[in-house]
Amino acid sequence: MDYRDKTVWITGASSGIGLELARQLAARGARLVLSARSEATLSELRDSLPGGAEQHWVEPLDLADPEALLPLGEAILQRVGPVDVLVNNGGVSQRSRFIDTDFSVYRRLMEVNYLGSVALTKVVLPGMISRGRGTIVAVSSVAGLVGSQLRSGYSGSKFAVVGFMDCLRAETAKQGIHCLTVCPGSINTAIAINALTADGSAQQSDDEGNLNGLSAEDCARQMVRAMDKGRDQVVIGRGLSGLAPTIKRLLPSLYNRLSARIEYR
Ligand SMILES: NC(=O)c1ccc[n+]([C@@H]2O[C@H](COP(=O)([O-])OP(=O)(O)OC[C@H]3O[C@@H](n4cnc5c(N)ncnc54)[C@H](OP(=O)(O)O)[C@@H]3O)[C@@H](O)[C@H]2O)c1
């Protein structure tokens, strides 16, 4: 895809995969709408990108309040104009057992990881359909394809993203809309540090899987390639974190035995 003069709206652009994707797409000439909660970090990123404040927008938002995103998203569209690509990337993970976890944690994970993306998609899709083109990217997870310990709420929210995207792809196939679902395995970002524990507080420490994971640069590069190739879904990861969906599909009972034995972090 030629990104020059294309407007790409990225959520979760203040850190990790979203931040790196912003850098790579800005280098290819895209106009970016940078969203997350941390406005100061987004402004710093915008100022460091080619084109700076003349070419890119900072539009802070909180995915945990999906209803408020509908009017806020419309107001953002008024400011930035037509959006060619929406990347629903912002999200939060979990590290806690179901039996210990407050119900509020489940609600928060669904709001941030699922309903926030649905709301922003509602905002941009009508314009894309009327123009007969557009790309919706959703960052789910390998945890959106297979379950494992410590992630019952996270996995539920990411499975929901995969299902939502499959339906959206089917409904918009004849309207020129490309729907890409990205399922990363372990990627070395702040995801584990920010992951919610049983009471909803952040874990504030890293996990071995994450530390040994792919870099955010590699992940973003593979995402851009999948966007360029018009792929429907892509798994990005190495080792067990990348192979898990294939093992589950081909040998489901082996996968279930492994996931009962291994507390993957
Ligand atoms: N890293 C991995 O191993 C991995 C694996 C599979 C899937 N993923 C998915 O990849 C996506 C990006 O994660 P990452 O690895 O880059 O983690 P990260 O470094 O923790 O970045 C998460 C991003 O999401 C934003 N965010 C979190 N809560 C938000 C909220 N309530 N409202 C708005 N923005 C919010 C954060 O910005 P603020 O804090 O500034 O709001 C940040 O920009 C997530 O959807 C994650 O589930 C990651």
How does this structure look, described?
This protein is globular. Helix content is 51%, strand content 14%. β5, α6 and β6 form a beta-alpha-beta unit. With 265 residues, the protein is α/β, with parallel strands linked by helices. A seven-stranded parallel sheet has the order 3-2-1-4-5-6-9, sandwiched between helices. It has a single domain, classed as Rossmann fold (3-Layer(aba) Sandwich), CATH 3.40.50.720. The mean pLDDT is 97. The structure holds NADP nicotinamide-adenine-dinucleotide phosphate. NADP nicotinamide-adenine-dinucleotide phosphate binds next to α1 and α7. This is SDR family oxidoreductase. Keywords: Oxidoreductase. Belongs to the short-chain dehydrogenases/reductases (SDR) family.
CATH architecture: 3-Layer(aba) Sandwich
Please give the radius of gyration in angstroms: 18 Å
Largest sheet: 7 strands, parallel
Instruction: Return the CATH topology.
Output: Rossmann fold
Question: What compounds are bound to the protein?
Answer: NADP nicotinamide-adenine-dinucleotide phosphate
Strand content: 5-15%
Oligomer: single chain
Number of strands: 9
